[in-house]
Design a protein that fits this description.
Length: about 325
């Protein structure tokens, strides 16, 4: 049985705790975070009694095999350093750290101590995304020539005028680090290694710590594929996530509206035939559960298996460091 501690009372509570608590061979033995009524009530419902306000005390008092983190990037870096030196396996949120040097240090430490490490890049876990990747990889409609991403929504912090790290670039926030990090991870999975980027940012007074709200990037891939990617987290009208794959013999569109991980649709456009693909779900969103839990659970289950078998999984700190490198590339190549 893998004994797990969770730090973070935001997504750690409503995303990670239910995901890990539902996995075989895993036992969540403690949490650390703000002792809110919501946290206490949920812990009581699953008979979890050990709630800490101080993560250092939690690490001192509890006999853990793994630590699951959902905290500010700078804090994630500080906590993970201490935990890795205690030989604890680490499940981290994205971005892995506030900057490239921090991420590199964490990977080096993880490799030195031979711990299992993971980063929560969720979109490639969605069944429709996996089906599109299968089609691209086997060249079902010929070689991929161009990839386009458009992701528009209104973030919680901007909508509610919250001053937090999520709008502060120095803390690992801003649209690029906090949201576009997902795009940088999954776009290389679809199209291959990124060779170069030209980017353009825009800003808004609604982003209280002055982090960018809009990123547009023109991307060249090592294999010759061309791409463009756009994200706007200050869109008060449109909530849509769309990927367009232009192949030699057809165009594939993967998209959803209003949700984060649910209800993606695949449409294939050929010269004379248009069709939609329907993909069977491995599991469904459970009642009163955040929609992201279903896909987080997949990475969490691999992580727990990795901890049990002492085998490394993906996505890992290697991927977290690569994304941090790409964040710097995009930020340093603004037009």
């Amino acid at each position: 049985m893998v004994r797990v501690g969770i730090i973070g009372s935001g997504f750690g509570l409503y995303g990670l705790l239910p995901a890990f608590n539902s996995i075989k061979n895993c036992r969540v033995v403690c949490v650390c975070g703000k002792k809110s009524e919501r946290l206490v009530r949920y812990c009581e419902s699953i008979n979890l009694k050990n709630i800490y306000l101080d993560w250092r005390k939690m690490l001192e008092n509890e006999k853990l095999d793994a630590l699951v983190l959902a905290v500010v990037p700078n804090a994630q870096y500080q906590i993970a350093k201490v935990a890795i030196k205690k030989n604890l396996n680490i499940f981290a949120e994205k971005p892995l750290a506030a900057n490239y040097q921090q991420a590199k240090e964490l990977l080096n430490l993880a490799q030195k101590h031979k711990i299992v490490h993971a980063v929560d890049f969720i979109f490639p876990e969605i069944e429709e995304w996996q089906e599109v990747k299968r089609l691209i990889d086997k060249e079902a409609y010929g070689k991929l020539k161009h990839i386009s991403v458009r992701w528009n929504f209104l973030s919680h912090d901007i909508k509610n005028k919250i001053s937090s790290w999520k709008t502060d670039v120095k803390e690992g926030g801003g649209a690029l680090s906090f949201y576009f990090s997902h795009v940088l991870y999954y776009i290389e999975r679809f199209a291959g290694e990124i060779l170069g980027v030209s980017s353009l940012f825009s800003y808004s007074k609604e982003s209280l710590n002055k982090g960018e709200v809009d990123v547009d990037a023109l991307i060249k891939f090592k294999n010759g594929v061309i791409g463009n990617a756009h994200i706007n987290c200050n869109d008060r009208g449109l909530h849509k996530h769309q990927l367009i794959f232009i192949c030699e013999h057809a165009t594939i569109i993967l998209e959803n509206e209003k949700d984060t991980t649910q209800n993606f649709k695949i449409k294939i456009y050929k010269e004379k035939i248009d069709k939609a693909l329907f993909v069977k779900k491995n599991n469904v969103v459970r009642k009163n559960e955040d929609e992201r839990v279903r896909v987080v659970r997949k990475i969490a289950a691999r992580f727990i298996d990795g901890c049990s078998n002492k085998t490394q999984i993906r996505p890992s700190f290697v991927d977290g460091l690569r994304v941090q490198e790409l964040i710097d590339l995009v930020r340093n190549n603004k037009i």
